[in-house]
Amino acid sequence: MSEIPPRILARRDGTSIAYHRRAAGESGVRRANLPEAELPGIVFLGGFMSDMTGSKALALDAYADAHGRNFVRFDYQGHGASSGRFEDGTIGRWAEDAIAVIDELTQGPQILVGSSMGGWIMLLAALARPDRVAGLVGIAAAPDFTETLMWNAFSPDIKETLRRDGLYHQPSDYGEAPYPITLQLIEDGRQHLLMDRPIPIACPVRLIHGTADPDVPYRLSLDLMDKLESQDVEVTLVKGGGHRLSEPHDLARLTGTVATLSERVSKRD
């Protein structure tokens, strides 16, 4: 599945977004009890320095294949197979990528599934396209992380490095290469902060978070539930779960959550 070369969405500014798209019914599967046209599509939004070949993206792709669902996974600018340098990326730019994918690669209502940073991006996309987003599923969603989990946690020396050089290389627990953090990323993130006020999103939202997540505290999902104006928000806490939540039972929980939410959204319509 992941070895197939991705398709390319060309942008007007000369950049490109790499993506994989699965059309409902292309595997010959149809739901007997609910026409596939009534089920919302699914769009996966990955995390910071992640890409569309990760385990959660592939699990959702396999679920879509098995159940005849429309599904799109893609790489933000500077990630994976898309054009651009990671260091030039910002929350605003990556949110624009997600909105472009919704606008140009999907039709009808969509369920956005956001992992970590993707949980912030999905909220921004839902605010920008409320008529297209039927539901949200966040896995360790991290809205405002550039401010609360990065800048506010940085030492005075790191902040001075960013102010002086515009770049800081942050050690990572997920690979040998450090994460390049730019001052531009921090400053742009401040233009997209959400957690300081009510969030006017009305669609159903499901949030999944591990209680032992070392990167994004699980209480952020509880705070997000309180901030969302939607009255249909559920938080699932996974005792002892880490940040990635990518073990087989975690992936089964994710696809089950997406399936249940899809049925709920379809019945509401």
Task: Outline the secondary-structure elements.
Blueprint (H helix, E strand, L loop, with lengths): L6 E4 L5 E7 L18 E5 L9 H13 L3 E4 L16 H15 L4 E6 L1 H12 L4 E7 L5 H6 L5 H10 L1 E4 L8 E4 H7 L15 E6 L8 H9 L5 E6 L9 H21 L1
Parallel strand pairs: 3-4, 3-5, 5-6, 6-9, 9-10
Antiparallel strand pairs: 1-2, 2-4, 7-8
Helix pairs in contact: 1-8, 2-3
Please explain how this structure is put together.
The chain has 8 helices and 10 strands. By secondary structure, it is α/β, with parallel strands linked by helices. The chain has one domain (7-24, 37-268): Rossmann fold. It has an 8-stranded mixed beta sheet with strand order 1-2-4-3-5-6-9-10, sandwiched between helices. The relative contact order is 0.14.
CATH topology: Rossmann fold
Cα end-to-end separation? 33 Å
CATH superfamily: Alpha/Beta hydrolase fold, catalytic domain
Taken in chain order, the helices and strands follow as: EEEHEHEHEHHEEHEHEH
What structural category do the secondary elements indicate? alpha/beta
**How many distinct helices?**
8
Integer average pLDDT: 93
Radius of gyration: 18 Å
Q: Number of DSSP strands?
A: 10
What can be said about the biggest beta sheet? 8 strands, mixed
Q: Which geometry do the CA atoms define?
A: globular
- At the first level of CATH, the class is Alpha Beta
Portion of residues in beta strands equals: 15-25%
Helix fraction? Answer: 25-40%
Adjacency order of strands in the biggest sheet: 1-2-4-3-5-6-9-10
Taking pLDDT < 50 over at least 5 consecutive residues as the criterion, the unreliable ranges are none
